[in-house]
Task: inverse folding
């Protein structure tokens, strides 16, 4: 039993509260898009803290928008998700939804991605609310159960809802797991964009012996692959490694004496925050222009890039950096690496989005876990961010 559990007479025991909250969240098998009661649970906890909670239900997805206004001042949000990827119990040290605590480590699906972050956010919020009389500004909670899937009806819907209400966030902290060796060693201040595309090539079929009467779709495909693979991404930012990768090349109904009439190329682009998806469309369209008569492109699953740089006044990025330095004794590294994240839905020229959370070395894996010490560390960081932001 960790020593904190036996500490007497404290107003509350933050570490134990957070562990209990996390265990409660893990025990709900909230595989995307089913929130398995976790949104209702969070609504109740936040409601008890004076938050006004709105449930935004869309196509079977439940989202939570909770708000507490302390007074006039800036608007910040905690954002995250309660859904998890599936877990087959095979190979686990304990059942993935049992939330077992073994040697001060909490095991379970979502422990790191990102119910641990949500539990720590809740404890930090409780600690802030104990000092509400000294606070200014407004704190939002934006929680979805549709992050691990297509993310069509989650954060995007909440961002649209805020816009409809005329609410602009000044800052948003996403509790995704971003740390590597130590909690707080890395935060994300942006993400690359991603998009997939599908090119249909239409030629003219005919006998291979008379190629002059045909248009070979496979040959066009070869030229296109060459062109696409050698595009120059001159706006790329160091570390972003913008790249277009061909993911498939399909010729239907291959016959050895037939020049194929059609062919399909599929590809995916991962691009630096220096680009927006519109520019990617243009660059690819330009590359395909010489073959305009024969090709058509269809775009799929766009995920916009985002980036939070420094600001002269009221910079949330530097506030988070300072808070981490105060709690952990070192500044975090900034990164935009990894896949896409829901941060993209909240980022704008007005809203600075930072992702900061526990270690990500076990996420989506067998025996996903977070240690009690790491959970406590991230709770301390979140608390420091809140106290600094709301002027306690
Ligand atoms: Zn996540």
Result:
């Amino acid at each position: 039993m960790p020593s904190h559990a036996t500490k007497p007479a404290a107003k509350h025991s933050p570490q134990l509260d957070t562990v209990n909250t996390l265990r409660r969240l893990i025990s709900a098998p909230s595989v995307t898009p089913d929130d398995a009661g976790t949104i209702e649970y969070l609504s109740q906890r936040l409601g008890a803290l004076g938050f006004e909670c709105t449930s935004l239900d869309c196509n079977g997805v439940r989202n939570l928008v909770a708000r507490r206004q302390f007074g006039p001042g800036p608007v910040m949000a905690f954002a995250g998700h309660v859904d998890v990827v599936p877990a087959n119990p095979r190979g686990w040290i304990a059942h993935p939804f049992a939330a077992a605590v073994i040697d001060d480590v909490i095991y379970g699906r979502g422990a790191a991605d990102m119910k641990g972050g949500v539990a720590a956010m809740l404890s930090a919020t409780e600690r802030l609310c104990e000092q509400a009389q000294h606070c200014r500004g407004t704190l939002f909670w934006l929680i979805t159960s549709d992050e691990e899937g297509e993310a069509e009806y989650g954060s995007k819907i909440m961002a649209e809802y805020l816009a409809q209400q005329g609410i602009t966030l000044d800052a948003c902290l996403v509790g995704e797991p971003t740390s590597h060796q130590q909690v707080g060693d890395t935060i994300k201040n942006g993400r690359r964009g991603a998009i997939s595309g599908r090119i249909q090539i239409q030629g003219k079929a005919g006998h291979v012996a008379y190629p002059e009467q045909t248009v070979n779709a496979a040959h066009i495909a070869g030229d296109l692959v060459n062109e696409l693979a050698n595009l120059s991404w001159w706006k790329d930012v160091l570390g972003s490694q913008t790249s277009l990768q061909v993911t498939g090349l399909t010729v239907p109904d291959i016959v050895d004496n037939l020049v194929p009439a059609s062919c399909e190329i599929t590809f995916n682009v991962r691009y630096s925050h220096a680009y927006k998806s519109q520019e990617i469309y243009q660059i690819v369209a330009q590359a395909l222009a010489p073959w305009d008569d024969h090709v058509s492109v269809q775009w799929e699953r766009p995920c916009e890039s985002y980036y939070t740089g420094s600001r002269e006044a009221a910079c949330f990025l530097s506030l988070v950096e300072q808070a981490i330095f105060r709690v952990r004794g070192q500044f975090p590294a900034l990164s935009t690496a990894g896949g896409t994240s829901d941060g993209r839905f909240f980022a704008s020229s007005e809203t600075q989005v930072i992702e900061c959370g526990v270690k990500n070395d076990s996420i989506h894996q067998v025996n996903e876990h977070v240690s009690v010490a790491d959970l406590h560390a991230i709770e301390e960081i979140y608390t420091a961010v809140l106290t600094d932001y709301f002027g306690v």
In short: Residues 81, 113-114, 147, 176 surround zinc ion (CB under 6 Å). The radius of gyration is 24 Å. The chain has two domains: 3-191+306-389, 193-303. The longest helix spans residues 111-129.
